[in-house]
Structures are given as structure tokens and as C-alpha cells.
Design brief:
Strand content: over 45%
Order of helices and strands: HEEEEEEEEE
Helix content: under 10%
Shape: globular
Largest sheet: 9 strands, mixed
Mean pLDDT: 93
Low-confidence stretches: none
Length: 126
Amino acid sequence: MELTTEMLARFVGGQVEIQNPGEGYIYRGEVLTIGVVNDDLTVTFSWLAKGEGYPPLSTSWVKDDRLDYAAGLSIYAVSNIGPSGEDVGGGDRICLRSQIVGETVILYPPDGSKLDPADVKGLQVA
């Protein structure tokens, strides 16, 4: 599956989750802009949170000041993994997985699964 800026436009207002159990991190944030630039997936977040206690599971979320993310698409396998589940509406999710760096990135559409920004410590919710 090849990603394009046009096909990614539907994820604006949705969320992205970035996780790497080997490195011990999980992030989740709301998409402000998303696209493909020079074979990189680029995301600018309106807010970003880091999960504490991961792995195995995030026990709480804390505001992270980094708002830009990029992933070199040449080292990621990209696939459509379908909707979030019956209890959550929304369109299909896209998953990027890199065996090289051990990272998984999941793109959620605006009406899909969401981390509530009110549950993020240090984040000012408007």
C-alpha cells in the first residue's frame, strides 16, 4: 500500500499512536496536518501525549512538547487494518510497521478511537 498526501487527508482531526515496546515508548496525539514529503510520513500534532508505564500498558498520559513526527516510509510496511471495532465508529485505520526500528504507527480517522485530551496531565484543554 502506497501512502499519498491526498489519501492521508482523511486523518486530519483524527489521532496517531506511535509505539515501540523495545525502546519503551508510546505516544498518542491529535493530527493537525499529515502528508508524505520526500518519502517520509510527516505529522504535525495539535497536541501529543506520552504514555507512562508502557510497556506493557500505559497507566497514564502526560503532555509531550514535541509536535512534529516523521517516519521514513522506505523502512515501514503499510497496511489497512480496518475499523477500530464495533463499539467505536469510524473508517479504516492504517498501520505502519518497521521491523528495522521496532516501531508501530497507527493512524485513526477523526471518528475512530481517541485518547481524551482531558485525560492528559499538563495539557490545557480548550
